[in-house]
């Protein structure tokens, strides 16, 4: 997506401009003025419009956006209860940074951090430090920065003159980790995929570590196929590394999605602060945290895991507030909505909601497998997400054709190619979220069934440019 250019003047001919005008009978529009009102699109209009006219123009254009509930590409919440919407509307003027002006909103943020610390089994939830962010990307930047600063403090004699920090991760990481490494000048050391392994291998990760490794990122679960990375095995491999070399490498768990799934559905899976090597964890409140975009969370095991010099003390808004965030101003409504959802659902409610999504995912995966044309890479039994490819004997069409044809029915199911060393593999991914009911899943299956005879009748796959992923949200 290109950066916005500010110089695009309104060059459209007048006929073109007239076509964009409103229905003359709409709202307060002046019916005798006909269809002549045509505000420019790429420069500020000379004068104002009545609110109903401006609303109508914007509203009508937005009708061409997709239907978010049919978007099986995104992990981000597309349905909340009306009460949550009301609460968010009531809080739309609250700026998260004005903690002195909005002390109750700040208190709700603090309570959410405490609840997450408890949920993720922090050794002492009362001293766990953490904050809300705009999403997991910002949370990962903050966690990565803390790792880098801690490493830099330990290596002050060599850095920056004689050492370059690196971060070890699977090649399946979300793009925010590549951004982190690029923005903060850290070498990204990535473990490639191999054969049927589509995420990080603990031993291979440990082998990439050296004295300049600031940490290892483990993902719960992978954006590419919904699988959980083996966090406990990763910690064990790093324990062995420490025994042999003395290197003590911390782990950050990117629980963007799984941080709000595993605690409810996989209670026996040990992946969180129960593992002493896990120093920080992030999640997206706006994914399986079940809040509209954008809210994320990042927590550190203890105050010593977050270097004090990264925390800014803001006092010119009337109080002395510690903050750690990339943004200054930020909406408070999402944090309020997160607290509402925690209160509304509780552990049992979250368990029920996530179990329903997982049931839909595994049920749909099994039904698709029964069609005979597809091979499942994952089955939706970790994140409620599964990835599939075409069966070896399918030559008439490929996953890009399936994605394109499903789009004609309104469904957004992305198709994309895997990274090294499995660039030969192209997959479809289905993300099941709260609101994607078994009823909707049945309709998707029906549409797929309808399309199959036509797809099988193709002479060859129609997608020529295999590099172009379709709406892949990773
Ligand atoms: C594993 C993982 N990390 C980080 C992110 C980025 O999260 P956000 O979109 O909340 O910034 C994602 C998004 O899909 C993700 O799946």
UniProtKB/TrEMBL annotation:
Its EC number is 4.1.1.15. Its cofactor is pyridoxal 5'-phosphate. Pfam families: Pyridoxal_deC. It comes from the Bacteria. Residues 1-47 are annotated as: Disordered. InterPro entries: Glutamate_decarboxylase, PyrdxlP-dep_de-COase, PyrdxlP-dep_Trfase, PyrdxlP-dep_Trfase_major. GO terms for molecular function: glutamate decarboxylase activity. Gene3D superfamilies: 3.90.1150.160, 4.10.280.50, Type I PLP-dependent aspartate aminotransferase-like (Major domain) (3.40.640.10). Keywords: Decarboxylase, Lyase, Pyridoxal phosphate. It catalyses: L-glutamate + H(+) = 4-aminobutanoate + CO2. Signal peptide: none annotated. Belongs to the group II decarboxylase family. PANTHER family: GLUTAMATE DECARBOXYLASE. NCBIfam families: Glu-decarb-GAD. This is Glutamate decarboxylase. It comes from Streptomyces sp. 900116325. The lineage of its organism: Bacteria, Bacillati, Actinomycetota, Actinomycetes, Kitasatosporales.
């Amino acid at each position: 997506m290109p950066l916005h250019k500010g110089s695009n003047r309104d060059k459209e001919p007048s006929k073109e401009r007239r076509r964009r005008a409103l229905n003359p009978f709409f709202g307060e529009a002046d019916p005798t003025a006909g269809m002549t009102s045509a505000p420019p699109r790429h420069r500020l209009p000379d004068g104002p419009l009545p609110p109903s006219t401006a609303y109508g123009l914007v509203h009508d254009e937005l009708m061409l956006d997709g239907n978010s509930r049919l978007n099986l590409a995104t992990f981000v919440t597309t349905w909340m209860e009306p009460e949550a919407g009301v609460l968010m509307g009531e809080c739309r003027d609250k700026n998260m940074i004005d903690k002195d002006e909005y002390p109750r909103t700040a208190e709700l943020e603090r309570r959410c951090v405490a609840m997450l610390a408890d949920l993720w089994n922090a050794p002492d939830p009362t001293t766990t430090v953490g904050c809300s962010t705009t999403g997991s990307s910002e949370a990962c930047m903050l966690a990565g920065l803390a790792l880098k600063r801690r490493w830099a403090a330990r290596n002050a004699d060599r850095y920056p003159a004689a050492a370059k920090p690196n971060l070890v991760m699977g090649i399946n990481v979300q793009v925010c980790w590549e951004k982190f490494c690029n923005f903060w000048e850290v070498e990204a050391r990535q473990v490639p995929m191999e054969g049927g392994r589509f995420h990080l291998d603990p031993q291979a990760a440990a082998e990439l570590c050296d004295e300049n490794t600031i940490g290892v990122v483990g993902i719960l679960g992978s954006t590419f196929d919904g699988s959980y990375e083996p966090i406990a095995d990763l910690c064990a491999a790093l324990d062995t590394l420490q025994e042999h070399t003395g290197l003590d490498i911390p782990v950050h768990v990117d629980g963007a999605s799984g941080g709000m799934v595993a605690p409810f559905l996989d209670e026996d899976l040990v992946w969180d602060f129960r593992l002493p090597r896990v120093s920080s964890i992030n999640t997206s409140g706006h994914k399986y945290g079940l809040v509209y975009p954008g809210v994320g969370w990042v927590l550190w095991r203890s105050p010593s895991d977050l270097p004090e010099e990264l925390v800014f003390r803001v006092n010119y808004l009337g109080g002395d507030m510690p903050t750690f965030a990339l943004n200054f101003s930020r909406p408070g409504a999402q944090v309020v909505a997160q607290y509402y959802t925690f209160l509304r659902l509780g552990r049992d409610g979250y368990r029920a909601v996530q179990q329903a999504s997982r049931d839909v995912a595994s049920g749909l995966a099994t039904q698709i497998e029964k069609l005979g044309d597809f091979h499942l890479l994952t089955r939706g039994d970790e994140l409620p997400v599964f990835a599939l490819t075409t069966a070896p004997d399918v030559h008439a069409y490929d996953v890009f054709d399936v994605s394109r044809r499903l789009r004609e029915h309104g469904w957004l199911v992305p198709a994309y190619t895997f990274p090294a060393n499995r660039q030969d593999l192209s997959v479809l991914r289905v993300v099941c979220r709260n609101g994607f009911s078994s009823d909707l899943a049945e309709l998707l299956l029906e549409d797929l069934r309808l399309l199959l005879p036509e797809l099988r009748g193709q002479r060859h796959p129609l997608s020529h440019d295999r590099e172009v992923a379709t709406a892949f949200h990773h």
